[in-house]
UniProtKB/TrEMBL annotation:
It is found in: Cytoplasm. It catalyses: acetate + ATP = acetyl phosphate + ADP. This is Acetate kinase. One of its GO terms (molecular function) is acetate kinase activity. Its main location: cytoplasm. It is an enzyme of class 2 (transferase). The active site is at D158 (proton donor/acceptor). It comes from Streptomyces paludis. Pfam families: Acetate_kinase (PF00871). The gene is ackA. Its EC number is 2.7.2.1. CDD domains: ASKHA_NBD_AcK_PK (cd24010). Keywords: ATP-binding, Cytoplasm, Kinase, Magnesium, Metal-binding, Nucleotide-binding, Transferase. Homodimer.
Amino acid sequence: MTSHATRVLVLNSGSSSVKYQLLDMRDGARLAAGLVERIGEASSRLVHTPLAGPDAATAGKKRERTEPIADHAAALEAVAAELARDGLGLDSPELAAIGHRVVHGGLRFSEPTVVDDEVLAEIERLVPVAPLHNPANLTGIRTAQALRPDLPQVAVFDTAFHTTMPEHAARYAIDVATADAHRIRRYGFHGTSHAYVSRRTAELLGKDPSEVNVIVLHLGNGASASAVEGGRCVDTSMGLTPLEGLVMGTRSGDIDPAVTFHLKRVAGMSVDEIDELLNKKSGLVGLCGDNDMREIRRRVDEGDPAARLAFDIYIHRLRKYIGAYSAVLGRVDAVVFTAGVGENAAPVREAAVAGLETLGLAVDAGLNAVRSDEPRVISPADSRVVVAVVPTDEELEIAQQTFALVGDVRTPIA
Ligand SMILES: Nc1ncnc2c1ncn2[C@@H]1O[C@H](COP(=O)(O)OP(=O)(O)O)[C@@H](O)[C@H]1O
Ligand SMILES: CC(=O)OP(=O)(O)O
Ligand SMILES: [Mg+2]
């Protein structure tokens, strides 16, 4: 029997974590999945689950290791070692490509791209506009190249889905010459997730993506909203960098830009200190000391006023974007929650649409309380707009885009 290289390894490298999945693209089956978190800290943790592979005895059994993992290169080597233990190592001839999430692709990349030295240089040039993300993405690519120099490495960009935004949504109202000279415009992020979730929502509604208008609320540690009209993004809440828009775990989202002048001129902070304040010490963590929505809800239920205020600010911002994108789209068919908070936090979903019947929005308390990994409607049957929860799967989307670019199920392994 002839075998074929049909597997794709996907690496989603974040500022302090790496999520990964190994998939077989004949049917999209996951062979292994895992996460390395708290990279660079003494308490780094690797959680690895083989889901299939030659060793049936280990399949489905989660393995956890807590040990210092100094950087992203060490994290990837640890992941490669775990995969090898299950007979799913990176040396496998069945591996067709490695797909990488790359957060900022600037103006240049609107499609998945095979990485070469020039592509790497461009991702590097964009580090100042994605300082938490692009450096980690670069390390992921370089480490993977070192482990398998013969394989195509494919970059799938968070910004790609948003390149369809019209100029009136993508441009800031600043001096055009200055903006153009420095490529200052709104790029938007989490695009792989917004694309996947808006498409799955159309499926949930039994329609073609070209027929539906959807507001997608991607609420993870980073958070963004997008307005998707007939399958194309027409507006999104993140901008030049992933700092604009919604309140996030550690990022402020929208503020008056004059706050930064004030912090410099009056508070005497340096630009680097302000950058750190707004990106890492603001948002939920800045407001109440916690960035995990589970912890915040626990504190709210105990009557903690700081957690209550943080939650209320988070929800207020979210509601503003729902209203704004209802106006941008004119007709809204669905409002969809996704990512860690959106998929799991029923109180966030309830509060986000409470009292918005005039916009056609309502949530059924019973449906909202259901826990499931499946896409599901949480609005009452007579709701004008469908409110839904659609779990995102950035890794599957990246694997599909990667394999569509470089894979070929018909090519036998040499
Ligand atoms: N059961 C839950 N209830 C509320 N929030 C949750 C729950 N599970 C996860 N979260 C939230 O999801 C966030 C992480 O979301 P995720 O999409 O994995 O983020 P990222 O990809 O940005 O790391 C956590 O910070 C936490 O606040
Ligand atoms: C772009 C971005 O904010 O990504 P993440 O949510 O993974 O931090
Ligand atoms: Mg994420």
